[in-house]
Amino acid sequence: MAPSTNSDDSTAPYGGPAPTSRSGRTRIHHLAQAKERGEHFAMLTAYDQYTASIFDEAGIEVLLVGDSAANNVFGHATSLPVTVDELLPLVRAVATSAPHALVVADFPFGSYEQSPAQAVATGVRFLKEGLAHAVKLEGGAYYADTVRAMVQAGIPVMAHIGFTPQSEHALGGYRVQGRGDDAARLIEDATALEAAGAFCVLMEMVPASTAAAVDAAVDVPTIGIGAGSATTGQVLVWQDMAGLRGGEGVKVAKFVKQYADLRTSLLDAARAYGQDVRSGQFPGPEHSF
After folding, report:
1. Which residues belong to the annotated binding site for Mg(2+)?
2. From CA 245, how far away is CA 264, in angstroms rounded?
3. Which of 168, 170, 157, 171 is CA-nearest to residue 199?
4. If 0-12 CB within 10 Å is exposed, 13-18 middle and 19+ buried, where does residue 257 land?
5. Is position 286 annotated as part of the catalytic site?
6. Local structure of residue 40 (DSSP, 8 states)
7. What percent of the chain has pLDDT over 90?
8. Angle at CA 198, nearest 5°, toward 69 and 89?
9. Is the pLDDT score of 20 beyond 60?
10. Is 222 in contact with 233 (CB distance < 8 Å)?
11. For Mg(2+), which residues are the binding ones (predicted)?
């Protein structure tokens, strides 16, 4: 789904493996085209220049600088403590290191709930200071007016419904949303947010059948994380995808597929380095001036 090498990226082709070399930026209309064509795109979180550059080279179409940085970068137990000021340098690092991906900045808890004006101000900071191309906020139809105000201000908005981690206390913990009769609520949320101008709807921890119904109810593309395969795109936290998170007592979510075991690789490398230093094998003559 990467943009073509054609200078007019409105004709960018979709489908098949993403190229490792491409020119042009993935834009929100490319995601819409993917849905229209029945194709798919990939999204990963990124929080620094190296992962952003690697994922961009790999052809990942969308990079999310998530509030998940709270528990994947800053060491918090949940996403709630992270602030706009903490996220802005991460967003800028990703945006300046990924020349092709669409970079989305996540609104942290407390940065948009007070009013549409607060949300617009936060969005302006992420686009102006962080150089993001779009923002994401959690919440259903209640935030339609907020989304509308942001879109009118020129801020592209990705909506996030289903399980919304910032509301974990109100939702009673990490629980699947949209089961049974509750599916209708998610459809109402998605259609209201689409009508307000959201260019995409992300669904987290939603039954596959509900996610499929939501996707069918809206014209904009959808993204899933623990929401089955009917969505246009899929997203994972990169540390989960690459097997960096782990260790004793750490559980991997059911919806995560690990494509590598970076934790073991780094652990082995660090142990070997420590052993070489303590034994005097490093640095050797070849590492000295």
Report:
1. 67, 106, 138
2. 10
3. 157
4. exposed
5. no
6. -
7. 82
8. 30
9. no
10. yes
11. 67, 106, 138
E strands of the chain, at which residues? Answer: 41-45, 62-65, 102-106, 134-138, 157-162, 200-204, 222-225, 233-236
- Looking at residue 72, its pLDDT comes to 95
How far from 27 is each of 100, 214, 223, CA to CA, in Å? 9, 23, 15
102 backbone dihedrals φ, ψ, rounded to 5°: -80, 120
Sign, CA dihedral 263-264-268-274, equals: positive
Q: Is the dihedral of CA 82, 83, 87, 89 positive or negative?
A: negative
Q: Name the token pair of 45.
A: 């979180």
* Separation between Cα atoms, residue 245 and residue 261, nearest integer Å: 9
- Distance (Å, rounded) from C-alpha 212 to C-alpha 8? 32
Could you tell me the pTM of the whole model?
Answer: 0.90
Cα(195)–Cα(200) distance, integer angstroms:
11
- Residue 103 CA to residue 38 CA, distance in Å, equals 23
Asked if pLDDT for residue 163 goes beyond 70, the answer is yes
Tokens 């029945």 map to which residue? 38
The binding site consists of 67-68, 106, 136, 138
Tokens of 48: 């620094």
Q: Give the mean model confidence (pLDDT) for residues 126-130.
A: 98
**Catalytic, out of 57, 113, 129, 204:** 204
Please give the Cα distance from 191 to 144 (Å, whole number): 10
